[in-house]
Protein backbone atom coordinates (compact mmCIF):
# COMPACT_ATOMS: atom_id res chain seq x y z
CA UNK A 1 0.00 0.00 0.00
CA UNK A 2 1.38 3.41 -0.99
CA UNK A 3 1.72 5.78 1.94
CA UNK A 4 -0.15 9.08 1.65
CA UNK A 5 2.19 12.04 1.72
CA UNK A 6 1.98 15.37 3.49
CA UNK A 7 2.73 18.76 1.98
CA UNK A 8 5.40 19.32 4.61
CA UNK A 9 6.80 16.13 6.21
CA UNK A 10 6.94 16.29 9.98
CA UNK A 11 10.24 16.15 11.81
CA UNK A 12 8.47 14.50 14.77
CA UNK A 13 5.04 13.18 15.68
CA UNK A 14 5.71 13.84 19.35
CA UNK A 15 4.31 16.84 21.17
CA UNK A 16 6.29 18.88 23.66
CA UNK A 17 5.17 16.99 26.78
CA UNK A 18 7.74 14.70 28.43
CA UNK A 19 6.92 11.03 28.96
CA UNK A 20 5.56 10.17 32.43
CA UNK A 21 7.23 6.75 32.75
CA UNK A 22 9.45 5.65 35.63
CA UNK A 23 13.22 5.98 35.15
CA UNK A 24 14.43 2.88 33.37
CA UNK A 25 11.00 1.91 32.01
CA UNK A 26 11.23 0.47 28.51
CA UNK A 27 8.04 2.11 27.27
CA UNK A 28 9.77 5.35 26.34
CA UNK A 29 12.16 3.44 24.08
CA UNK A 30 9.25 1.85 22.22
CA UNK A 31 7.47 5.18 21.77
CA UNK A 32 10.64 6.80 20.46
CA UNK A 33 10.83 4.03 17.86
CA UNK A 34 7.17 4.52 17.02
CA UNK A 35 7.85 8.21 16.48
CA UNK A 36 10.77 7.44 14.14
CA UNK A 37 8.59 5.00 12.22
CA UNK A 38 5.82 7.58 11.77
CA UNK A 39 8.32 10.20 10.61
CA UNK A 40 9.66 7.78 7.99
CA UNK A 41 6.18 6.72 6.88
CA UNK A 42 5.10 10.37 6.61
CA UNK A 43 1.40 9.76 7.08
CA UNK A 44 -0.58 12.91 7.84
CA UNK A 45 -1.33 12.96 11.59
CA UNK A 46 -5.04 13.11 10.77
CA UNK A 47 -4.72 9.72 9.07
CA UNK A 48 -3.20 7.99 12.10
CA UNK A 49 -5.12 6.90 15.21
CA UNK A 50 -3.42 5.61 18.35
CA UNK A 51 -5.74 3.47 20.45
CA UNK A 52 -4.93 2.53 24.05
CA UNK A 53 -6.51 1.25 27.24
CA UNK A 54 -5.61 1.11 30.93
CA UNK A 55 -2.06 0.52 32.18
CA UNK A 56 1.23 2.35 31.86
CA UNK A 57 1.11 1.73 28.11
CA UNK A 58 -2.27 3.48 28.09
CA UNK A 59 -0.54 6.78 28.84
CA UNK A 60 1.16 6.71 25.47
CA UNK A 61 -1.35 8.17 23.02
CA UNK A 62 -1.49 11.64 24.59
CA UNK A 63 2.17 12.35 23.69
CA UNK A 64 1.62 12.27 19.92
CA UNK A 65 0.04 14.78 17.55
CA UNK A 66 -2.09 12.10 15.87
CA UNK A 67 -5.71 11.31 16.62
CA UNK A 68 -6.23 9.05 19.63
CA UNK A 69 -8.80 6.97 21.49
CA UNK A 70 -8.41 5.82 25.10
CA UNK A 71 -10.75 3.24 26.62
CA UNK A 72 -11.28 0.45 29.13
CA UNK A 73 -8.73 -2.18 30.14
CA UNK A 74 -8.39 -4.98 27.61
CA UNK A 75 -10.79 -3.39 25.14
CA UNK A 76 -8.44 -1.36 22.95
CA UNK A 77 -8.63 -3.83 20.06
CA UNK A 78 -12.44 -3.61 20.01
CA UNK A 79 -12.31 0.18 19.74
CA UNK A 80 -9.64 -0.04 17.08
CA UNK A 81 -11.70 -2.55 15.11
CA UNK A 82 -14.68 -0.20 15.13
CA UNK A 83 -12.54 2.69 13.95
CA UNK A 84 -11.02 0.62 11.15
CA UNK A 85 -14.42 -0.66 9.99
CA UNK A 86 -15.85 2.85 9.93
CA UNK A 87 -12.78 4.53 8.43
CA UNK A 88 -10.72 1.91 6.56
CA UNK A 89 -8.40 4.55 5.10
CA UNK A 90 -6.98 5.32 8.56
CA UNK A 91 -3.85 3.73 9.99
CA UNK A 92 -4.98 2.39 13.36
CA UNK A 93 -2.23 1.53 15.83
CA UNK A 94 -3.06 -0.15 19.13
CA UNK A 95 -0.71 0.37 22.07
CA UNK A 96 -1.48 -2.07 24.86
CA UNK A 97 0.28 -3.90 27.67
CA UNK A 98 0.49 -7.55 28.55
CA UNK A 99 -2.21 -6.94 31.17
CA UNK A 100 -4.69 -5.67 28.60
CA UNK A 101 -3.67 -8.45 26.23
CA UNK A 102 -4.60 -11.08 28.81
CA UNK A 103 -7.82 -9.35 29.82
CA UNK A 104 -8.86 -8.82 26.20
CA UNK A 105 -7.64 -12.15 24.86
CA UNK A 106 -10.89 -12.95 23.04
CA UNK A 107 -10.71 -9.62 21.21
CA UNK A 108 -7.12 -10.37 20.20
CA UNK A 109 -8.14 -13.72 18.74
CA UNK A 110 -11.10 -12.25 16.86
CA UNK A 111 -9.03 -9.49 15.28
CA UNK A 112 -6.34 -11.97 14.23
CA UNK A 113 -8.66 -14.53 12.67
CA UNK A 114 -10.60 -11.83 10.84
CA UNK A 115 -7.30 -10.28 9.76
CA UNK A 116 -8.47 -6.77 10.63
CA UNK A 117 -6.02 -4.18 9.32
CA UNK A 118 -4.66 -3.07 12.68
CA UNK A 119 -1.13 -2.70 14.01
CA UNK A 120 -0.87 -3.89 17.61
CA UNK A 121 2.15 -2.99 19.71
CA UNK A 122 2.17 -5.04 22.92
CA UNK A 123 4.42 -3.35 25.48
CA UNK A 124 5.10 -6.57 27.35
CA UNK A 125 6.80 -6.10 30.75
CA UNK A 126 5.43 -9.31 32.35
CA UNK A 127 3.35 -7.70 35.09
CA UNK A 128 0.63 -5.18 35.88
CA UNK A 129 2.96 -2.25 36.41
CA UNK A 130 0.33 0.42 37.02
CA UNK A 131 -1.60 -1.39 39.76
CA UNK A 132 1.19 -2.79 41.94
CA UNK A 133 3.21 -5.36 40.02
CA UNK A 134 0.76 -8.29 40.00
CA UNK A 135 1.49 -11.23 37.71
CA UNK A 136 0.01 -11.15 34.20
CA UNK A 137 -0.67 -13.64 31.42
CA UNK A 138 2.94 -13.31 30.23
CA UNK A 139 4.78 -13.58 33.58
CA UNK A 140 7.51 -16.22 33.11
CA UNK A 141 7.77 -19.29 35.39
CA UNK A 142 9.58 -18.60 38.62
CA UNK A 143 9.17 -14.83 38.39
CA UNK A 144 8.34 -13.08 41.65
CA UNK A 145 5.53 -10.55 41.54
CA UNK A 146 3.17 -9.02 44.08
CA UNK A 147 0.80 -11.97 43.62
CA UNK A 148 3.46 -14.67 43.08
CA UNK A 149 5.99 -13.95 45.84
CA UNK A 150 7.21 -17.56 45.75
CA UNK A 151 7.60 -17.52 41.98
CA UNK A 152 5.00 -17.94 39.22
CA UNK A 153 3.96 -21.52 38.43
CA UNK A 154 2.29 -20.71 35.12
CA UNK A 155 3.63 -20.92 31.61
CA UNK A 156 3.27 -17.53 29.95
CA UNK A 157 0.92 -16.84 27.08
CA UNK A 158 2.74 -17.04 23.75
CA UNK A 159 1.13 -13.96 22.20
CA UNK A 160 2.89 -14.34 18.87
CA UNK A 161 2.03 -18.00 18.32
CA UNK A 162 -1.56 -17.34 19.39
CA UNK A 163 -2.26 -14.68 16.79
CA UNK A 164 -0.11 -16.37 14.14
CA UNK A 165 -2.02 -19.64 14.25
CA UNK A 166 -5.28 -17.70 14.11
CA UNK A 167 -4.49 -15.91 10.85
CA UNK A 168 -2.51 -12.73 11.53
CA UNK A 169 -0.67 -11.36 8.48
CA UNK A 170 2.47 -10.21 10.29
CA UNK A 171 3.81 -11.25 13.70
CA UNK A 172 7.18 -10.45 15.27
CA UNK A 173 8.73 -10.79 18.72
CA UNK A 174 11.17 -8.04 19.67
CA UNK A 175 12.55 -6.07 22.62
CA UNK A 176 12.56 -2.40 23.45
CA UNK A 177 16.37 -2.51 23.16
CA UNK A 178 16.37 -3.53 19.48
CA UNK A 179 18.14 -0.80 17.50
CA UNK A 180 16.04 -1.51 14.41
CA UNK A 181 12.67 -1.62 16.18
CA UNK A 182 11.40 1.39 14.23
CA UNK A 183 11.94 -0.53 10.98
CA UNK A 184 9.88 -3.43 12.31
CA UNK A 185 7.11 -1.05 13.36
CA UNK A 186 7.13 0.43 9.87
CA UNK A 187 6.80 -3.03 8.34
CA UNK A 188 3.89 -3.80 10.65
CA UNK A 189 2.08 -0.54 9.88
CA UNK A 190 2.49 -1.11 6.14
CA UNK A 191 0.94 -4.56 6.42
CA UNK A 192 -2.58 -4.58 5.01
CA UNK A 193 -3.86 -7.21 7.45
CA UNK A 194 -3.53 -7.76 11.19
CA UNK A 195 0.00 -7.07 12.41
CA UNK A 196 1.35 -7.55 15.93
CA UNK A 197 4.68 -6.85 17.60
CA UNK A 198 5.21 -8.48 20.99
CA UNK A 199 7.80 -6.06 22.38
CA UNK A 200 9.47 -7.24 25.58
CA UNK A 201 10.62 -4.47 27.90
CA UNK A 202 11.40 -3.92 31.56
CA UNK A 203 9.21 -2.56 34.37
CA UNK A 204 11.78 -0.80 36.52
CA UNK A 205 9.33 -0.20 39.36
CA UNK A 206 8.30 -3.80 40.06
CA UNK A 207 9.58 -6.56 37.78
CA UNK A 208 13.22 -5.49 37.70
CA UNK A 209 13.68 -5.20 41.50
CA UNK A 210 11.75 -8.39 42.22
CA UNK A 211 13.68 -10.49 39.74
CA UNK A 212 17.05 -8.74 39.35
CA UNK A 213 16.08 -8.39 35.70
CA UNK A 214 18.18 -6.67 33.05
CA UNK A 215 18.49 -6.37 29.30
CA UNK A 216 20.27 -9.74 29.28
CA UNK A 217 17.35 -11.27 31.17
CA UNK A 218 15.11 -10.76 28.15
CA UNK A 219 17.31 -12.77 25.79
CA UNK A 220 17.80 -15.46 28.44
CA UNK A 221 14.03 -15.77 28.91
CA UNK A 222 13.48 -16.09 25.17
CA UNK A 223 15.95 -18.98 25.03
CA UNK A 224 14.65 -20.77 28.13
CA UNK A 225 11.00 -20.42 27.08
CA UNK A 226 11.73 -21.26 23.42
CA UNK A 227 10.14 -17.97 22.38
CA UNK A 228 12.69 -16.59 19.91
CA UNK A 229 12.82 -13.06 18.62
CA UNK A 230 12.25 -12.18 14.99
CA UNK A 231 9.44 -12.77 12.50
CA UNK A 232 7.03 -15.46 13.65
CA UNK A 233 4.57 -15.19 10.76
CA UNK A 234 4.28 -13.27 7.52
CA UNK A 235 1.51 -14.18 5.12
CA UNK A 236 -0.66 -12.61 2.44
CA UNK A 237 -4.38 -12.88 3.20
CA UNK A 238 -7.50 -10.78 2.53
CA UNK A 239 -7.87 -7.90 4.96
CA UNK A 240 -11.32 -8.01 6.53
CA UNK A 241 -12.51 -4.42 6.07
CA UNK A 242 -11.55 -4.44 2.39
CA UNK A 243 -13.07 -7.89 1.83
CA UNK A 244 -16.27 -6.83 3.57
CA UNK A 245 -16.66 -3.72 1.43
CA UNK A 246 -15.99 -5.73 -1.71
CA UNK A 247 -18.69 -8.23 -0.79
CA UNK A 248 -21.22 -5.47 -0.14
CA UNK A 249 -20.30 -3.66 -3.35
CA UNK A 250 -20.89 -6.85 -5.31
CA UNK A 251 -24.31 -7.45 -3.80
CA UNK A 252 -26.02 -5.15 -6.32
CA UNK A 253 -24.59 -7.25 -9.17
CA UNK A 254 -25.94 -10.55 -7.90
CA UNK A 255 -28.94 -11.97 -9.79
CA UNK A 256 -30.61 -12.86 -6.49
CA UNK A 257 -30.75 -10.17 -3.77
CA UNK A 258 -29.61 -11.09 -0.26
CA UNK A 259 -32.93 -9.77 1.09
CA UNK A 260 -36.02 -10.40 -1.01
CA UNK A 261 -38.69 -7.70 -0.54
CA UNK A 262 -42.34 -8.70 -0.20
CA UNK A 263 -44.46 -6.71 -2.64
CA UNK A 264 -48.02 -5.62 -1.90
CA UNK A 265 -50.26 -7.81 -4.06
CA UNK A 266 -53.47 -8.16 -2.10
CA UNK A 267 -55.89 -6.13 -0.07
CA UNK A 268 -57.19 -6.70 3.45
CA UNK A 269 -60.18 -5.32 5.36
CA UNK A 270 -58.33 -5.11 8.68
CA UNK A 271 -58.79 -1.59 10.09
CA UNK A 272 -57.31 -2.06 13.58
CA UNK A 273 -54.37 -3.64 15.33
CA UNK A 274 -54.87 -7.39 15.70
CA UNK A 275 -52.89 -9.49 18.18
CA UNK A 276 -52.55 -13.24 17.62
CA UNK A 277 -50.75 -15.77 19.82
CA UNK A 278 -49.88 -19.27 18.62
CA UNK A 279 -48.83 -21.62 21.44
CA UNK A 280 -47.45 -25.08 20.76
CA UNK A 281 -44.48 -27.36 21.31
CA UNK A 282 -40.91 -27.17 20.08
CA UNK A 283 -40.46 -28.90 16.75
CA UNK A 284 -44.10 -28.27 15.82
CA UNK A 285 -43.33 -25.64 13.16
CA UNK A 286 -45.00 -22.95 15.25
CA UNK A 287 -42.59 -20.15 14.40
CA UNK A 288 -42.31 -20.92 10.69
CA UNK A 289 -46.09 -21.19 10.33
CA UNK A 290 -46.56 -17.89 12.15
CA UNK A 291 -43.94 -16.31 9.90
CA UNK A 292 -46.00 -17.29 6.87
CA UNK A 293 -48.93 -15.34 8.34
CA UNK A 294 -46.72 -12.29 8.92
CA UNK A 295 -45.43 -12.45 5.34
CA UNK A 296 -48.99 -12.77 4.04
CA UNK A 297 -49.96 -9.67 6.04
CA UNK A 298 -47.10 -7.71 4.48
CA UNK A 299 -48.23 -8.89 1.04
CA UNK A 300 -51.59 -7.30 1.89
CA UNK A 301 -49.97 -3.96 2.59
CA UNK A 302 -50.21 -4.38 6.36
CA UNK A 303 -47.55 -4.00 9.05
CA UNK A 304 -46.53 -7.11 10.99
CA UNK A 305 -44.22 -8.04 13.85
CA UNK A 306 -43.38 -11.47 15.23
CA UNK A 307 -41.95 -12.29 18.65
CA UNK A 308 -40.95 -15.88 19.43
CA UNK A 309 -40.42 -17.54 22.79
CA UNK A 310 -38.84 -20.96 23.29
CA UNK A 311 -36.52 -22.58 25.86
CA UNK A 312 -32.78 -22.90 25.48
CA UNK A 313 -33.22 -26.60 24.72
CA UNK A 314 -34.92 -25.53 21.43
CA UNK A 315 -36.12 -29.03 20.48
CA UNK A 316 -38.12 -29.69 23.65
CA UNK A 317 -40.67 -27.73 25.63
CA UNK A 318 -42.85 -24.87 24.45
CA UNK A 319 -42.81 -22.75 21.32
CA UNK A 320 -44.77 -19.49 21.29
CA UNK A 321 -45.23 -17.04 18.42
CA UNK A 322 -46.81 -13.65 19.01
CA UNK A 323 -48.00 -11.78 15.92
CA UNK A 324 -49.11 -8.17 15.77
CA UNK A 325 -50.76 -7.16 12.50
CA UNK A 326 -51.94 -3.61 11.83
CA UNK A 327 -52.83 -1.21 8.99
CA UNK A 328 -50.34 1.33 10.38
CA UNK A 329 -46.83 1.24 11.91
CA UNK A 330 -46.62 -0.82 15.12
CA UNK A 331 -45.14 1.00 18.10
CA UNK A 332 -45.78 -1.61 20.81
CA UNK A 333 -44.98 -5.21 19.96
CA UNK A 334 -45.79 -6.94 23.26
CA UNK A 335 -49.14 -8.71 23.63
CA UNK A 336 -50.83 -8.31 27.00
CA UNK A 337 -54.30 -9.31 25.84
CA UNK A 338 -54.57 -11.29 22.57
CA UNK A 339 -57.49 -10.81 20.22
CA UNK A 340 -57.12 -14.45 19.28
CA UNK A 341 -55.08 -17.41 20.44
CA UNK A 342 -54.38 -20.82 18.91
CA UNK A 343 -53.46 -23.59 21.37
CA UNK A 344 -51.66 -26.50 19.73
CA UNK A 345 -50.31 -28.38 22.76
CA UNK A 346 -50.26 -28.56 26.54
CA UNK A 347 -46.66 -27.26 26.44
CA UNK A 348 -47.87 -24.08 24.80
CA UNK A 349 -51.00 -23.74 26.93
CA UNK A 350 -48.92 -23.93 30.12
CA UNK A 351 -46.93 -20.84 29.06
CA UNK A 352 -49.77 -18.50 28.11
CA UNK A 353 -51.96 -18.64 31.21
CA UNK A 354 -51.59 -14.93 31.97
CA UNK A 355 -52.65 -13.96 28.46
CA UNK A 356 -55.56 -16.43 28.53
CA UNK A 357 -56.87 -14.95 31.78
CA UNK A 358 -56.69 -11.44 30.31
CA UNK A 359 -58.92 -12.30 27.35
CA UNK A 360 -62.57 -11.18 27.16
CA UNK A 361 -65.66 -12.99 25.79
CA UNK A 362 -65.33 -11.12 22.49
CA UNK A 363 -61.88 -12.64 21.98
CA UNK A 364 -61.36 -16.04 20.35
CA UNK A 365 -59.39 -19.09 21.45
CA UNK A 366 -58.91 -22.00 19.03
CA UNK A 367 -57.84 -25.31 20.56
CA UNK A 368 -56.97 -28.78 19.35
CA UNK A 369 -58.89 -31.70 20.94
CA UNK A 370 -57.88 -32.53 24.50
CA UNK A 371 -56.32 -29.16 25.32
CA UNK A 372 -57.97 -27.17 28.10
CA UNK A 373 -58.00 -23.39 28.29
CA UNK A 374 -59.04 -21.41 31.37
CA UNK A 375 -60.34 -18.23 29.85
CA UNK A 376 -63.42 -16.05 29.41
CA UNK A 377 -62.81 -15.91 25.67
CA UNK A 378 -64.97 -17.79 23.20
CA UNK A 379 -63.46 -21.23 22.60
CA UNK A 380 -63.60 -23.04 19.26
CA UNK A 381 -62.25 -26.55 18.76
CA UNK A 382 -60.30 -27.41 15.63
CA UNK A 383 -60.40 -31.13 14.81
CA UNK A 384 -57.55 -32.17 12.48
CA UNK A 385 -59.28 -35.53 11.94
CA UNK A 386 -61.77 -33.77 9.67
CA UNK A 387 -59.03 -32.78 7.25
CA UNK A 388 -59.19 -34.37 3.82
CA UNK A 389 -55.41 -34.85 3.85
CA UNK A 390 -53.20 -36.64 6.31
CA UNK A 391 -51.67 -34.17 8.74
CA UNK A 392 -48.36 -34.97 10.36
CA UNK A 393 -46.69 -32.98 13.11
CA UNK A 394 -45.02 -30.75 10.51
CA UNK A 395 -48.38 -29.63 9.06
CA UNK A 396 -50.56 -29.39 12.14
CA UNK A 397 -49.64 -25.87 13.20
CA UNK A 398 -50.16 -24.38 9.74
CA UNK A 399 -53.47 -26.23 9.35
CA UNK A 400 -54.78 -24.92 12.68
CA UNK A 401 -53.59 -21.37 11.97
CA UNK A 402 -55.18 -21.37 8.50
CA UNK A 403 -58.45 -22.72 9.91
CA UNK A 404 -58.54 -20.03 12.59
CA UNK A 405 -57.69 -17.24 10.14
CA UNK A 406 -60.53 -18.42 7.92
CA UNK A 407 -63.03 -18.06 10.76
CA UNK A 408 -61.59 -14.69 11.73
CA UNK A 409 -61.58 -13.45 8.10
CA UNK A 410 -58.27 -11.80 8.92
CA UNK A 411 -56.35 -12.31 5.66
CA UNK A 412 -57.35 -13.57 2.21
CA UNK A 413 -56.31 -17.15 1.56
CA UNK A 414 -54.61 -16.03 -1.67
CA UNK A 415 -52.18 -13.98 0.40
CA UNK A 416 -51.35 -17.00 2.54
CA UNK A 417 -50.75 -19.12 -0.55
CA UNK A 418 -48.54 -16.40 -2.01
CA UNK A 419 -46.49 -16.30 1.19
CA UNK A 420 -46.17 -20.08 1.03
CA UNK A 421 -44.83 -19.72 -2.50
CA UNK A 422 -41.89 -17.67 -1.20
CA UNK A 423 -40.45 -20.85 0.28
CA UNK A 424 -38.49 -23.49 -1.64
CA UNK A 425 -40.48 -25.54 -4.12
CA UNK A 426 -41.04 -28.71 -2.07
CA UNK A 427 -42.03 -26.85 1.10
CA UNK A 428 -44.20 -24.41 -0.86
CA UNK A 429 -46.28 -27.18 -2.44
CA UNK A 430 -46.82 -28.86 0.92
CA UNK A 431 -47.78 -25.56 2.57
CA UNK A 432 -50.30 -24.67 -0.17
CA UNK A 433 -51.90 -28.12 0.09
CA UNK A 434 -52.21 -27.69 3.88
CA UNK A 435 -53.76 -24.22 3.52
CA UNK A 436 -56.35 -25.47 1.07
CA UNK A 437 -57.21 -28.41 3.27
CA UNK A 438 -58.05 -25.99 6.08
CA UNK A 439 -60.73 -24.15 4.10
Give the CATH superfamily of the largest domain: Thiamin diphosphate (ThDP)-binding fold, Pyr/PP domains
* Basic shape: elongated
The biggest sheet, with number of strands, parallel, antiparallel or mixed sense and barrel status, is: 7 strands, mixed
> How many beta-strand runs?
15
CATH architecture level-2 label of the largest domain: 3-Layer(aba) Sandwich
Care to describe what's here?
The protein is of the alpha/beta class and 439 residues long. It has two domains: 27-246, 3-Layer(aba) Sandwich (Rossmann fold); 274-437, Pyruvate-ferredoxin Oxidoreductase, domain 3 (3-Layer(aba) Sandwich), CATH 3.40.920. The protein has 15 helices and 15 strands. It has helices at residues 27-41, 76-86, 98-103, 105-114, 159-165, 181-190, 207-211, 215-224, 240-249, 286-299, 346-351, 353-358, 393-408, 413-421, 425-437, and strands spanning 48-52, 67-70, 91-97, 118-124, 127-128, 134-135, 170-175, 195-200, 230-234, 274-281, 303-309, 318-326, 340-343, 364-367, 378-381. The strands form three sheets. It has a seven-stranded mixed sheet with strand order 2-1-3-4-8-7-9, sandwiched between helices. α14 packs antiparallel against α15 (425-437). The longest helix has 16 residues, at 393-408. It is elongated.
Q: Can you give me a brief rundown of this structure?
A:
With 439 residues, this protein is α/β, with parallel strands linked by helices. The chain has helices spanning 27-41, 76-86, 98-103, 105-114, 159-165, 181-190, 207-211, 215-224, 240-249, 286-299, 346-351, 353-358, 393-408, 413-421, 425-437; strands spanning 48-52, 67-70, 91-97, 118-124, 127-128, 134-135, 170-175, 195-200, 230-234, 274-281, 303-309, 318-326, 340-343, 364-367, 378-381. 34% of the residues lie in helices and 18% in strands.
Amino acid sequence: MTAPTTVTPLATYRNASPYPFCPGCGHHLVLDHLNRALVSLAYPPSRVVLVSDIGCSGLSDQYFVTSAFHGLHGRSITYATGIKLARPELKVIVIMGDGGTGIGGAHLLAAARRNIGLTVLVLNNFNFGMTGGQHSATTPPGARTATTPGGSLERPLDICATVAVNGASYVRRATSFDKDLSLHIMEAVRTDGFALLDIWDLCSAYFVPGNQASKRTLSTMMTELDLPSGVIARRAAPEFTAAYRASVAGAAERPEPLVRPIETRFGASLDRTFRLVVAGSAGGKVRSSARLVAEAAVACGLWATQRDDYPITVKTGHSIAELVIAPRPIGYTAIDRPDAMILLSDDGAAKVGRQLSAMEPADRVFVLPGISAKTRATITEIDPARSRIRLGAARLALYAIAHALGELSLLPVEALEHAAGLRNASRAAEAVETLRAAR
